[in-house]
Amino acid sequence: MSKRFLPSRTALICFALSNCALLAQPRELRFERISVEQGLSNFTVTSIVQDRQGFLWFGTADGLNKYDGYDFKTYKHDPADSTGLPGQEVNCLIVDRAGTLWIGAGLRGRGLYRFDPDIDGFAPFSSKAPLADSLARQVLGLIYEDRRGDFWFSTSAGLFRYQRATDALQDFPPNSQDSTALNSKAINAVAEDRSGALWIGSAAGGVFRWEAETTRFKHFRLTSRSGNDAVPRKILEDRRGIMWVATTEGLYRLNRATGAFELMRTPHGIAFEHIVTLFEDSHGRLWIGTFGAGLWCYDVVADRFYQALHNPNDPNSLSSNRIEFIFEDRSGILWFATYRNGLNRYNRKQEAFARYPFEDAIYAVLEDRRGEIWLGTSSRGLLRFDCDGNLLRHYRHRDDDLHSLSSDNIMALRSDPVAPDD
Known about the structure:
- Helix content is 5%, strand content 39%.
- It is mainly β.
- The two termini are 15 Å apart.
């Protein structure tokens, strides 16, 4: 914990409450819409990443966009430019551990490309592996980097693994006669858990766990209400070690005791008929993007759900109820990509300031070990908030109390690393 000195009360309150739960009143969530009018090259955004320099990159159905927070720079396909974007569509993006931006091209481009900042252009994936030519001809739907630095590619020809240290490329063809093989070439999701096991979501239904030691797959069923194997769209292990699978039939959670995935029974009749994407933010909340039921947020600790929907009469509502991709940048801003309706940006810091319009200047802010926020003001003493933004206590100077503050002018705050916060 560290002290902060901010002369601007706006900036201070934004920082102070950025880590707080601001979803107690979900109808108050306000989104900023960003679309072609602001410079985005296409209404449909397929993927979002942030590079080491802080630039945001948006892959779209027509071009790649680099965003500095103010303006877009667009890269489009030009058949006459050998270093230009390989095709019209950008299906997927990843920034690897070395900071390199990789692009998975769509139907008209095909293959894997890396961005070269020295030429401000793109170079094709280079490998001497026997399957490299085959990979170059495929449409890429997903790129994933595991803890070993190996790449996993979901392509139109199936699942590939590229071991960068040895320049080895391996494919995993499906085999309906082999229970330890995949059941489909079409792979929708890949995620690694904390043990190093890889989980693969098949478009034919179910998830498969792959372990490097055995090089075999184990099939886990996702039994739906109809008895079929649900189709995964996104897999993630959250910070608590819970394995989640978002599917076309709902949200599943792995029961570690039984080793089976169970369909989550949501309260109040909430049903997720078709989940498109799933994301855990920096505060441990799950954001659930659906095909037509808008955006849901699940507070795992409180076991509460919140929903945000498009409202044609509210320009600060979601631009669409179909959410395709979710991303959080390093400043804590959440980005929600929609199908054919551009981007939605949610800045929790601005939301917090809107809720706390203090009249006097605030000079110091501190977050304690419990996540509570302490604000030092110029004339109103010390304010203490819980992480839901509720005022817990207001400390003031009182002439008749020797244990009160000596002054209502609080210039700095610092947490004692040894003493408890109380």
